[in-house]
Amino acid sequence: MKYTSTRDSALHVDASMAILTGIAPDGGLFVPEELPVCMPSEVYGLTYPQTAQKVLSLFLTDYDADFLKAATESVYSAENFGGKAGFVHPVANRLCALELWHGPTCAFKDYALQLMPRLLVQAKKNLRDESLTKILVATSGDTGKAALAGYAGLDGIQIAVFYPDSGTSEMQRLQMVTQEGENVAVYAVNGNFDDAQTGVKRVFADAAVTRLLAAQNAHLSSANSINWGRLVPQIVYYFYSYAQLVASGTVKDGETVDYCVPTGNFGDILAGYYAKRMGLPVGHLLCASNKNNVLTEFLRTGVYDANRKFYKTTSPSMDILVSSNLERLLYHVTNDAQRVRGWMEELARTGRYTVPAEVLGVMQETFLGGCAEDGQAAQTIAQYHKSCGYTMDPHTAVAFYVQAEHADTGRTTVVLSTASPYKFAGDVLAALGESVPTDIFAAVEALRIKTGLPVPQSLAELKTKKVRFTRTIDAADIAKAALSL
Ligand SMILES: *Cc1c(COP(=O)(O)O)cnc(C)c1O
């Protein structure tokens, strides 16, 4: 299987090259040239690692089968995902939550960020690349910890994470600064997330840094969600969840199921689109946004307009105005790199672009958009806790709110649940009408008493874990930090 660029159909590379380089030379994203077929019955009865192996082998054809087997078995092991990889939790009649937060950092990003580092190390082997890879990550919270946990201890890789000083939740900060491993570093950056992100981007574009690193046989790379290696592992749980619905008798073999996805950068939901194109009987993909509802408007009108106020919400991992992975969908519905390039150039120049009615129409056959404000998400948390005894985090609540607006189809719907409620214990407690203690561990304990949900070990142990990283730097010093890794 070859990969091409969303902006240049003349490009053809293997999966290893797509994963090692992350972004195409023309600025486009790597996409598979054709989509493999996989009928759901091909994964019935398989474990999660076996399902992963099956799906990945269809896309990563230049990777050794033994490698894929060993990697998926160790990454999606019962130990690493608490025996709940791809766990489907029935919530109400014809309504389930696909709980994707039983991994080491309690957010769905573990599915990709536990596996991708191994795909990267193997890509280097496949390409006989013996250089040192330095990963730089600017994070507003979830990605930083998930990346640290995924890259820690791997050969030939170093990782530095930069988070805005006082811009993350206390739980997220503690998760990062207690990270173990010799090849990791974590820095607080004076300023907000944009300052950290702009600082990191500047280092990537700095020719002097590239030269200095090249002299040490090293290069920079990112753990960004546009890397194909982060997207492909997410296709797996669509297949696995469908197989579980059939096994439990919730749906019949071949019956159409809708999926509703809390969306930020459009990666998670796009994986569902790939699953559908491969042969999984997916009906609608409901794209759920918070108050930053660029995608809702786009899927209703065909106008993508990022020139709008940016809101900070209780679902921070969805606070995004430019959803990078949408570019891949535009490519797959048009098959026209020239046109995609035109829209992306317009977006870069003016902050907006418009797709014509026929392109919008094709997207609307699969995608429906909806959005929820913080108050609506909080009400949703309270409502499902009361009526179904189910507790969810604010990101997942945005999706349950949007799902309810489209609940009249008679089809079974799976809502992707992307974070443990304990990662956002304060907001969840407040939504449930409880007072919120200022100490986060007291808030976690209050939520445990209120809901009876077990507290994930990895969050509970933060209370006594040693803080390893205490440095705060200016954004201008990120290059220095990267070079001194
Ligand atoms: C990253 C994230 C999302 C958004 O996923 P995308 O792939 O960026 O659309 C939703 N919820 C949580 C908890 C996340 O961490």
Report on the structure:
The protein has 485 residues and is α/β, with parallel strands linked by helices. The chain has 21 helices and 16 strands. The strands form four sheets. Strands 4-5-15-10-11-14 form a six-stranded mixed β-sheet, sandwiched between helices. The longest helix is centred in the middle third of the chain and has 20 residues, at 228-247. The protein is globular and about 60 Å long. The two termini are 36 Å apart. The mean pLDDT is 95. Pyridoxal-5'-phosphate binds next to helix 11.
Alpha-carbon distance between the two ends: 36 Å
State mean pLDDT (0 to 100 scale).
95
Bound molecules: pyridoxal-5'-phosphate
Question: In terms of per-residue confidence, which ranges show pLDDT below 50 for 5 or more consecutive residues?
Answer: none
Figure out the total of helices: 21
Major beta sheet summary: 6 strands, mixed
Rg on CA atoms, Å:
21 Å
Structural class call reads alpha/beta
Strand order of the largest sheet: 4-5-15-10-11-14
Estimate the strand proportion.
15-25%
